[in-house]
Amino acid sequence: MVTVEQSITINRPIEEIFAYVSDQRNIPQWQDGVVEVQQIPESPVGLGTRVILARVFLGRRLEQHAEIVAFEPPTRFAFSSTSGPSTTGTNRFESTPEGTRVTISFEMQAGGLFALAEPLVARNLRRSVEAGLGNLKDILENRTVEVSS
What we know:
Elements: E1 2-10, H1 14-22, H2 27-30, E2 34-40, E3 50-57, E4 60-72, E5 76-81, E6 86-96, E7 99-109, H3 112-116, H4 118-142
Antiparallel strand pairs: 1-7, 2-3, 3-4, 4-5, 5-6, 6-7
């Protein structure tokens, strides 16, 4: 089992960050390796929203289907995979004096060839999440963000 948890503080209001991050169509803008996202329905995101996400990971294109299983604006949403690697994840948002603390945590059951290389998979996932949070901070702090509704 691969477990990852990373946090970052972003100098933006919690509502803005929650709206941007929970709109799954924004994922390719800030998560490295994500090449395509389909959100069903396209808008608004909420409990039961389904997501088809394609990413390139360790040189392979992986497609994963997931569903939003918890949705509590503006503090938390969670997902669970419905196909692909068994994955559950939670995104938490907390107002702080400096802005908003964003914490991404997830667990993934590495299967197939990835199970043999679980330490490598874990290290790459941690680096990917850390880089993604850095990208998210840069995007949200340095440009005007239009939130899809």
